[in-house]
Write a structure and sequence with these properties.
The complex is a heterodimer. Chain A is mainly α. Chain A has a domain at 5-46. Chain A has helices spanning 5-19, 28-46. The mean pLDDT of chain A is 88. By secondary structure, chain B is of the alpha/beta class. Chain B contains 14 helices and 15 strands. In chain B, helix 9 packs across helix 12. The mean pLDDT of chain B is 96. The chains are: A mainly alpha, B alpha/beta. At the A-B interface, helix 1 and helix 2 of A face helix 9, helix 10, helix 11 and helix 12 of B.
């Protein structure tokens, strides 16, 4: 999965409106950079094939 | 009083107070004086609970005078990362926003337990804003400073905790660790730290960050002190929904058992790819001291770290969503930008990360059928300069902060118990992680103690103190 840089601007704009988040122009580059890093990390996770019946671990028990 | 409370261990202080060769109030006087003179240069404390500490010390001395029994941590001063509730103080969690919160009406469970063992709370400690930090820097309160070199980072987010212990202001402190916030500062400041199994120690009445990854634990300058504090804090707490009812499993009596018969391996692959030589040197010293010949590959360690990163971004943002909407300007710039970005991460990616977490746990538990403990570096480098953004690597400037937690995140991701063990390299220390299977803190502490006994591991005393 790769995300085009311009798509992040659209995602940020949409999320700000949909989630009623504040945004100032000066914040956008850093938010975009952080989001890009997180999505790159997420791509590494989603690239890994998991069986359909894998349970998530939202409340984790060691 | 022959004991020097500034250099003494918690065990030595408690022994002296119980024996009556020093008094709790003498200990507290000495520590308060040290905080007044050296505390500000380390920027470790955000509140000093002097009146409360003096009252507690007086009560301990009175009990002893009346022939009453004193606990295993009698008269031991300790301080807590300021995300722990302290009765009478607003729980800052490193933020400006929380200053306006009403004062906590009670102490966090772990403070109550340490005080029940005789320890004396002396104050609250600086930290990275809302614990979303690996540096120990804070835009509102200033950076906590590394006692070995005050121009360098303590590591974070429990930066004040590590500065206070390494700098000799207290022998014992509490911190929290979501992705490495106990182990990174232990490494940069050269002290012992314990991140227990997820669900072992109560997080009740602390300010959360990432509920499914948050742990709390102690820092100390010796393994005995670490184990004593850990044992005093164990036990079920209904106020923390993930705290598991396992009863007491004391580690302190296990410390002298050594490492004979334990199957210990060094982590290879991902953990050997560091850009600088210090982590390899530290791991090599440990391997030599323990006679470790075996290496194991942590399956998909890098992906585990990535999944932890994604969960942290999204859960951390969820924790602060309302504050982001209403108080965005009152966050530090770096925290606000990260948290706003986290609020925009699609849920499908977060759930996939949680699925990967289950998979990774299964693989790691299989690994622990073959070994009892794993040794890995805690950080890829020694403490960087405060404010440093990059470091030179192969002729290029590489961003520094994104990889500070690279070695710690895969293990907290699945809640494994880890002791950060300081190796006193010159001129700056660095820590290795001793990682055990779930609920086997005792093994990790035994190995750490053996390394201390062999002289390989130690919390070096800062030259400037």
């Amino acid at each position: 999965m790769t995300t085009q840089p311009d798509a992040l601007d659209g995602l940020i704009e949409a999320a700000v409106q949909a989630l009623d988040l504040p945004l100032e122009p000066a914040w956008q580059p850093a938010i975009k950079a952080n989001l890009a890093v997180t999505l790159r990390q997420a791509a590494l996770v989603t690239d890994f094939p998991l069986p359909d019946d894998t349970e998530p671990a939202p409340v984790f028990q060691a | 009083m022959t004991l020097n409370p500034i250099t003494a261990s918690a065990a030595e202080i408690a022994g002296a107070v119980r024996a009556g060769t020093t008094s709790a109030h003498e200990v507290i006087d000495a520590v308060l004086a040290a905080i007044r003179t050296r505390g500000q240069t380390l920027n470790a404390f955000t509140a000093v609970t002097e009146e409360r500490a003096r009252a507690k010390a007086a009560a301990l001395d009175a009990r002893r005078a009346q022939g009453g029994a004193l606990g295993p941590l009698a008269g031991v001063p300790f301080a807590v990362k300021n995300l722990f509730d302290v009765a009478g103080l607003p729980t800052l969690a490193g933020s400006k926003i929380n200053r306006a919160h009403p004062p906590a009406t009670r102490d966090a469970t772990l403070i109550e337990r340490l005080e029940a063992a005789g320890a004396v709370l002396i104050g609250a400690l600086n930290m990275g804003e809302y614990a979303y930090d690996f540096t120990g820097e804070n835009e509102h309160y200033g950076p906590s400073r590394n006692p070995h070199d005050r121009t360098r980072m303590t590591g974070g987010s429990s930066g004040g905790s590590a500065a206070a212990v390494a700098g000799g202001l207290v022998p014992l402190a509490l911190g929290s660790d979501t992705n490495g916030s106990i182990r990174v500062p232990s490494s940069f400041c050269g002290i012992f730290g314990l991140k227990p199994t997820y669900g072992r120690l109560s997080r009740a009445h602390t300010f959360p960050f990432v509920a499914s990854l948050d742990h709390v634990g102690p820092f100390a300058r010796t393994t005995l002190d670490l184990a004593l504090a850990y044992d005093a804090m164990q036990g079920y707490d209904a106020d923390d929904p993930v705290c598991v009812d396992r009863g007491q499993e004391p580690a302190t009596p296990q410390l002298p058992r050594g490492t004979q018969g334990l199957r210990i391996a060094v982590a290879g692959g991902y953990f050997e790819k560091g850009p600088l030589p210090q982590p390899d040197e530290a791991v090599a010293r440990v391997a030599k001291a323990l006679g470790i010949k075996r290496q194991v590959e942590i399956p998909e360690a890098e992906r585990a770290r990535s999944a932890a990163y994604v969960i942290t971004a999204a859960e951390g943002a969820a924790c602060h969503l309302d504050r982001l909407r209403t108080r965005a300007h009152d966050f530090g710039n770096a925290s606000r930008d990260r948290l706003l970005a986290g609020a925009m991460v699609p849920a499908s990616l977060v759930i996939q990360a949680q699925k990967f977490r289950r998979h990774f746990r299964t693989q790691m538990l299989k690994l622990f059928e073959k070994v009892d403990a794993i040794i890995a570096p805690a950080t890829a480098y020694v403490a960087p300069a405060i404010g440093q953004q990059t470091f030179p690597l192969a002729g290029q400037d590489v961003p520094l902060r994104p990889i500070i937690g690279a070695y710690t995140q895969p293990f907290s991701f699945i809640g494994l118990p880890v002791v950060a063990v300081p190796i006193p390299l010159e001129p700056l220390p660095i820590a290795v992680q001793v990682i055990a299977a779930p609920w086997r803190e005792d093994l990790a502490l035994r190995i750490a103690h053996a390394l201390e006994q062999k002289g390989v591991a130690a919390a070096p005393r800062p030259r400037e103190s």
